[in-house]
Q: What sequence folds into this?
């Protein structure tokens, strides 16, 4: 289920995630990426909402870019029946959009807790049920669902899915070949079980995507925005990328940075830095 | 190795960690705790440094208080030989202080990474070596070392030990009965493997301490200070406390809150709130 990557020169596996340049208009983002010789982008549903999925597909094609993933589905932890139904409907729309954009996988941020219901075990159970309900639809659509373990500092408000092993447990319970995991260095670099979990994911053919950015300190006021250029923080990119490579992953590698300083940088310059750091710290080990 | 607790009325298992009232002078803190009918405190080395260990022991005894733990040893991740030797010496002094204070256990914050050395696997290895070097000294001294898994958001700067299973792996590798784990709700509430890890700790007689406080959002500018009164955040205290009880733990339960609002509250009032929340959310399940 890995993203097929053409054998070319340069850094064909580098994909720029749209959110790395979220303050730039979509057209300028696509053109700047293509102009840098980069061949793929990870897209977000916000652009679909703004310009429509067919227009977004056309613009991506016109720029000569492949789509490595779509962000994001998920948010499956609400308990009330009406909210759960609405969430499943929304996820089916996201799957349709991924198909329309030619994205092989939909990244799933599974959802957090509420102050009224702090039962994290029950919330995790609802995630598994939701993924089970969506998997047949993804299978029929011919795309995969990349469960994203998020850093535990987001467990309360964004994702009760915190580790790669936990994502694989859900995938195995669901039992669908369309369900797997995205390894994002920012979220999982600290995990003492990471090496074994990456091997387990690959052996089960569930290592669907690899996203990179650094873990910066001090944390930003909005901790999500502490994602940094590779090399600026504490992530050991050679070590993690070697684990990913040795597990057999040959797909795209997305750089996804949420960082107000990066967003304030002219897009051509931030993409240049991304590509440079990618070539220094990631590509030699990929 | 659990802390023996006398069978009395009220909340004999409640211990107030010194850092919950860090802005109050030590004498006032001890008197306010005793005046609230609380029988135990968790102490910090800063007070030892300020007034001396014998004076601190005398004041604690005079207030009629038991000492449930001493914070903290650890910081064993530095690579240079001189720093490692100094860290071991410092930890032996901390063990001596725990003995002098009558604390059954020394809480260990193992240390983080440096920007020069991001190899987290190697840093973890140095932690195991350091604990192995200290364990015989702790055994001779008749105290335990409580390895503290810290929330993964502190993995870079404070503790490469992030989960309870990981702490138990270290304890088993070291093989000493003096090495175990402290379960602190703030640090481990998100862990999908928590239930099994607590059982494993108890079965190995390595469940040495239980500390409680809530996980507040939004995170404070200094994330360590996002610890809150039980009930203010997202931790499911009945569920985790039930796991601890069912595993057989009968020792002290320390409330350890780092929070600037709590510190700005008059000490008698913050201790009253702590005791009230403890009786509501923790004690019925303990």
A:
């Amino acid at each position: 289920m890995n993203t097929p990557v053409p054998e070319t020169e340069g850094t064909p596996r580098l994909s720029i995630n749209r959110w790395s340049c979220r303050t730039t208009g979509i057209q300028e983002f696509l053109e700047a990426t293509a102009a840098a010789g980069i061949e793929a982008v990870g897209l977000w549903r916000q652009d679909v909402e703004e310009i429509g999925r067919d227009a977004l597909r056309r613009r991506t094609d016109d720029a000569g870019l492949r789509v490595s993933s779509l962000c994001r589905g998920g948010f499956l932890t609400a308990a009330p029946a009406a909210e759960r139904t609405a969430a499943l409907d929304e996820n089916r729309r996201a799957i349709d959009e991924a198909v329309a954009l030619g994205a092989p996988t939909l990244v799933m941020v599974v959802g957090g807790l509420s102050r009224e219901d702090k039962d994290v075990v029950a919330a995790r159970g609802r995630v598994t049920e939701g993924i089970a309900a969506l998997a047949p639809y993804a299978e029929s659509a011919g795309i995969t669902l990349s469960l994203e373990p998020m850093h535990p500092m987001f467990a309360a408000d964004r994702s009760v899915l915190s580790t790669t092993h936990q994502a694989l447990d859900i995938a195995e319970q669901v039992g669908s070949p369309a369900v797997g995991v995205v390894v994002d260095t920012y979220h999982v670099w600290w995990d003492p079980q990471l090496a074994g979990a990456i091997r387990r994911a690959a052996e089960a053919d569930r290592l669907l995507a690899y996203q990179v950015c650094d873990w910066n300190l001090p944390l930003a006021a909005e901790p999500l925005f502490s994602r940094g250029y590779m090399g600026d923080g504490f992530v050991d990119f050679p070590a993690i990328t070697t684990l990913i490579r040795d597990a057999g992953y040959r797909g795209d590698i997305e750089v996804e940075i949420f960082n107000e300083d990066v967003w304030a940088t002219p897009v051509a310059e931030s993409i240049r830095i991304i590509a440079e750091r990618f070539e220094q710290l990631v590509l030699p080990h990929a």
The interface with chain A takes residues 113, 115, 118-121, 124, 151-153, 155-157, 160, 162-163, 165-166, 169, 189-192, 215, 217, 219, 221, 223, 233-236, 239 of chain B (CB under 8 Å). Residues 1-9 of chain B have pLDDT under 50 and may be disordered. DSSP finds eleven helices and ten strands in chain B. The first strand of chain B starts at residue 14 and ends at 17.
